[in-house]
Amino acid sequence: MRTPIAFVALLAIAPVATLPTPTIVASDLDTGTAVLCRSAVEGVTLAYTHSMYGGEVREEFGAGAEGRLRRLAMTTANAAAAEYYAYDVGVERVGGRYRVDVPPREFAEVVVRVDRVGAHRLLAGERVVDLVATAGAGHRVALEVRAVPLAARLVPGAC
Fold first, then answer.
1. What are the DSSP E strand ranges found in 50-139?
2. Is residue 13 part of a domain?
3. Is residue 31 part of a domain?
4. Does 6 fall in a domain?
5. Mean pLDDT, rounded, of the chain
6. Which residue segment(s) compose the domain that 97 sits in?
7. For 83-119, how does the pLDDT look when each residue is reduced to its tens digit (9 = 90+)?
8. Domain count, the chain
9. Residue 32, Cβ neighbours under 10 Å: how many?
10. 87 falls within a domain
């Protein structure tokens, strides 16, 4: 009796699982491998060490219009790094960080050249993806928004 119920339940959720949803995908451009696949609604943060002034910089991204990646916020742990980015915008101290009042901007993609100095990472909720360890120093990692079926997001590497 359980088999028919499970089969009916599977048939009921199958259409939902195949619907494409806006997804932020991080891909190693040198190998073609997806290193992160996350709902665009939840967003992702690119974190790295500023190469001149030190201190961690965080850029938060979500889904923008027409399948584009939208930068939502930028913060840094270092006042000098904040001033570097704030050429013509304000900087505000928020807790132990500096928020740079960058205007929201949309991109088709953001490409990062991964290196050990920058120690590039992607923060997705509690998950941290070390791009140096995952992609390798010198590799290029692209962040973009794609329409990905929910089922593909649940299978590692299928994004």
1. 56-63, 69-76, 91-94, 97-100, 105-107, 110-113, 121-124, 127-130
2. no
3. yes
4. no
5. 86
6. 21-154
7. 888 877 889 999 999 999 988 899 999 999 999 999 9
8. 1
9. 7
10. yes
Q: What is the pLDDT of residue 124?
A: 94
Query: CA–CA separation, 53 vs 66, rounded Å?
Result: 35
Distance CA 74, CA 41 (A): 18
- The residue length of the chain stands at 159
Q: Which amino acid is at 74?
A: M
Strand ranges across the sheet with 20-28: 34-39, 20-28, 140-149, 110-113
| Torsion angle in degrees (nearest 10) through CA of 54, 92, 60, 86 | -60
Rounded CA gap, 121 and 34, in Å?
14
Determine the Cα–Cα distance for residues 86 and 89; give it in Å rounded to an integer.
5
Q: Determine how many CB atoms are found less than 10 A away from the CB of residue 155.
A: 10
The burial class, CB within 10 Å (0-12 / 13-18 / 19+), for 44 is buried
